[in-house]
Specification:
mainly alpha; two-stranded antiparallel sheet; 11 helices; 2 strands
């Protein structure tokens, strides 16, 4: 058994070694892209403010969704036929339409807020890539572009995502109704359909993200940008795959380190500081520090992840526009391109 396991381990190691050798130039490009993304975050520190502001907007829309939804639902009349302690409300068709419209509108506002976040970060990174300046004012021009130049494209992309969210919620509601009616067949069908819609939702998020990057780079409409992004990814599938994989690894490591640092710092604070006598157990405060640390890490690494994707697309667009020479690329990317051309 041990000899067989060792052979399997050596085989996997050999496969990884061959993959690294074959993808050496792509891995070098991915590392350079990751370095340039870090350079952008360092030069444009104001980009770190964008995700927290958008998070506040999203939380506001979520609160608005529940508060106004409760008020609309309360318009209904109490069911006189029910003998339950808490009797349900009966809604007429007009009130139901009001409720559906309110839910869809809140979904659309949430999706639009997320679209603003992605576009502003992508636009700031694209301006940094093509028009590096001594004074790093990249966020305010990006906000201006989002509002006055590309609001329709962002609204259209978020509209598609809001429709997907609404369909997914509707299928979950039908599955729950089927469960309460003890109809396992229809419940299974609706669960499967909901899972398919969830997969489609991930594709739409991926498509929207790359379309917003193309809008930030070339300033075209949503449909043209989505088609351009898909075409660019197909032509450079290996580069995208390696860079995205390496970027996800760095994002995961960053989130883990920030969360672990916050947990360790919080634990030592509550156990070593003067307040340790006022706390019976450090478990709950440490869990709170973990949650806060993860939220901060997720907000920070959102900027970093978006920067990696934007830098890569900027580099590929720059390279194709200048016959294989990325004239606007930062030093690391340009050096790698020159080395590849020499070899």
């Amino acid at each position: 058994m041990c000899i067989r396991d060792s052979y399997i381990a050596w085989g996997i190691a050999a496969i990884f070694a061959v993959a690294i050798v074959c993808l050496y130039s792509r891995i070098k490009l991915a590392i350079a892209v990751v370095k340039c993304a870090a350079m952008f975050v360092n030069d444009c520190w104001s980009s770190l403010v964008v995700p927290p502001v958008v998070l506040i907007l999203v939380l506001f829309h979520i609160c608005w969704l529940f508060i106004v939804g409760v008020y609309i639902y309360s318009i209904g009349e109490i069911d006189p036929k029910s003998n339950a302690v808490i009797r349900p409300l009966i809604l007429d068709s007009k009130t139901k339409y009001y409720l559906y419209f309110h839910i869809f509108g809140c979904f659309w506002n949430i999706a639009l807020s997320l679209a603003f976040c992605e576009f502003i970060l992508a636009s700031a990174c694209a301006i940094w890539y093509f028009q590096r300046q001594d004074k790093p004012f990249y966020i305010l021009p990006s906000i201006k572009r989002a509002i006055f130049n590309h609001l329709g494209s962002l609204a259209f992309g978020s509209f598609i995502l809001a429709i997907v969210w609404t369909v997914k919620l509707w299928l979950e509601y039908l599955a729950e109704q089927s469960r309460q009616a003890h109809n396992q067949v229809t419940e299974f069908i609706f669960r499967v359909l909901s899972y398919c819609v969830s997969c489609f939702e991930r594709f739409i998020k991926f498509l929207n993200k790359n379309a917003y990057i193309q809008i930030a780079i070339q300033g075209k409409s949503f449909c043209e940008s989505a088609a351009a992004a898909l075409s660019l990814m197909i032509r450079n599938a290996v580069r995208f795959g390696v860079t995205s994989g390496l970027g996800e690894i760095f994002v995961f490591i960053g989130k883990a380190l920030i969360t672990a640092g916050a947990a360790a710092g919080g634990y030592f604070y509550v156990t070593k500081a003067d307040i340790r006598h006022q706390i019976s157990s450090p478990i709950l405060p440490t869990i709170a520090f973990i949650i806060v640390g993860y939220v901060i890490a997720d907000l920070f690494m959102t900027v970093y992840s978006m920067s990696v994707d934007t830098v890569l697309q900027c580099f590929l667009v720059d390279e194709e526009a200048h016959d294989g020479r990325a004239t606007n690329a930062p030093g690391d990317l340009k050096n790698i391109l020159e080395d590849n051309q020499k070899s």
